[in-house]
Amino acid sequence: MIYKDRTKPIPERVEHLLGLMTLEEKAGQLVQPFGWQTYEHINGEIRLTEAFKKQIEQAGVGSLYGVLRADPWTGVTLESGLSPREGAEAVNTIQRYAIENSRLGIPILIGEECSHGHMAIGATVFPVPLSLGSTWNVDLYREMCRVVGRETRSQGGAVTYSPVLDVVRDPRWGRTEECFGEDAHLISEMAVASVEGLQGEKLDGEDSVAATLKHFVGYGSSEGGRNAGPVHMGRRELLEVDLLPFRKAVEAGAASIMPAYNEIDGVPCTTNQELLEDVLRNDWGFDGMVITDCGAIDMLASGHDVAADGRDAAIQAIRAGIDMEMSGEMFGKHLVEAVHAGQLEEEVLDRAVRRVLTLKFRLGLFESPYADPDRAEQVIGSAEHVELARKLAGEGIVLLKNEGVLPLAPGAGKIAVIGPNADVGYNQLGDYTSPQPRDKVTTVLGGIRTKLADTPEQVLYAPGCRIKGDSREGFEFALSTAEQADTVVMVVGGSSARDFGEGSIDLKTGASKVTGNSESDMDCGEGIDRLSLSLSGVQLELIQEIHKLGKPLVVVYINGRPIAEPWIDEHADAILEAWYPGQEGGHAVADILFGDVNPSGRLTVSIPKHVGQLPVYYNGKRSRGKRYLEADSQPRYPFGFGLSYTEFTYDKLSVSSDSIHKNEEVQVRVEVKNTGQRAGAEVVQLYVTDVASTVTRPGKELKGFRKVFLQPGETQTVEFTVGPEQLQYIGANYEPVVEPGEFQVHVGKHVNELLSANFIVRED
């Protein structure tokens, strides 16, 4: 059997296997049912369901989604879920049955969510991507992705539905937390690191999983910040901004890609042949697998309404370039019948099956389909991985304001830790996180108590209020607690914890739904889009009441989107933006509060003064205007901004040549000095301005960055290369062009605090 011979080239093995398959077996390879529905976990024993067994014996299953996932959508809880060892054993039980009870013994592709850690019980929970972007530390993020690949593959997961490469344009969007930020260059750097980390040197390695780039494309630019809403975007912006991170990740070797739910100019991404075939495959040379988002094909007939029914939707999708359907309902019901009815050519089906089988062979699933439970137990949640989670959380926290109160001195008296996010571990984990044991997650209260373990009487606590709702019943206790303290640390923000009530889950996609459930604190995450960027509930009122006590006030935000609260910006003595910092977030916040870690996080999204300023992303066009009647158009905190416990100065910006040809490069150098009393890390940022261009351009565009660590008094020369890639844009004919003329380079702390120099680009 050629397809079982590992010495044969993969294309030869694929064609041989494809030639042996029936029509029904081919269609079976293109469906991905929900993995948690294939088994029952009873008294520690894994039993496969009869429905799954029947599906295997009839035509087989190409892939399973979320075998190891646990959350309210799956109905899998801490009590009923699988430990790291049990997860590996469950995958082995599923694989063994599929291989031994199907005609051709084709292994199943196990797909799992890994946006900021393997979404399984016991796996390491890292900070959300918005926090990871705020580290500006590409190497550290790549290391994290290696860990995520290791943990996932150890349990048998072979493909992950990450990274999320959407460019944030309206932070009211609930999925902002899943993104790296508002800048395509920074996202591209993280995208390449993600692919390199997750996939490793070879896909069939024991630590490697196939990366799936999502959501292709424009998903972060939806109308009104509403999830999956229409996208109004010109072709030039699409090519230049939103497609850039995907192109870079494809060039890095990404094995899979997922189209977005949204439409662009009236065409749903799920059936956009121009994007899926012309751009992705023909222009970029992508040779991997394309899988839909959950329920996306059904949405063509019931949502976009571009298909008459499910069969029409399935035919349109596979013709456009879809290879596999997450959930598998439309492909499973209609593809075989469509071929029999003469509505779909079998060679179109073969094209998709060929891509699915190729990925399975590349992953080595035919040779090594089974997980190692001993290894899973050893690597998942290891001490080394936990320490990495803490370091990433610390580097992703942004110090927005500090009027001399931070860092706190350990002997500075009593500290009152107050707020709804002070001691609720699940609230700091973010969306796409499985429930974790309580003792695995360190809250801010826990982190501060650990710092002051020798004097526990120094730490006081009161929740004060919930994230949402108008109850003030906790105010009195919070105020009396704060009165006893010398310093108050308010831990407020949002929640993406999927602990919502019955009926608030979209059963097709797993996204949450906005309901009247008063017990739910979820105000962020997939499907939770907001009108406002203010704090939910009565949190602001609680802070204002405590401020009246006259105590030093430190505000810690734990949240998944920017918060615009002018009163807090003006009245708090210090503000930390921690995003959702993951399981070690409490330790990381405490490390910064007490000065054991010098904050080095920098914003990757602009934070507006008021929601009425949106859109407020830094690289808008120069023609967009300066102000409103009530205020200027500048954000409260600009892109790239973040404070430190030390000071950095910039000097001696130079460009190696004042004139180059358009195919040449210049070296840009600047001296950065730590002029303060503490060691610290600075994010040195390079921006480029095309002074005059045929097509309108942004005022500044990020084109490079370096995170450098400097001791007090130390100076380092930081160098950037600026050439055609940094100077080009999508020109009048929709092709990349470097136009002759004057350019400016800017280097500095953030987009509004920069040194500048000019040079000329000449015609060849």
Automatic annotation (TrEMBL):
Example of a GO MF term: beta-glucosidase activity
GO terms for biological process, alphabetical: glucan catabolic process
Residue span(s) of domain Fibronectin type III-like: 682-751
Record's keyword terms, sorted: Hydrolase
Pfam families cross-referenced by the UniProt entry: Fn3-like, Glyco_hydro_3, Glyco_hydro_3_C
Source organism, top-level taxon: Bacteria
Protein family (similarity comment): Belongs to the glycosyl hydrolase 3 family.
Record protein name field: Beta-glucosidase
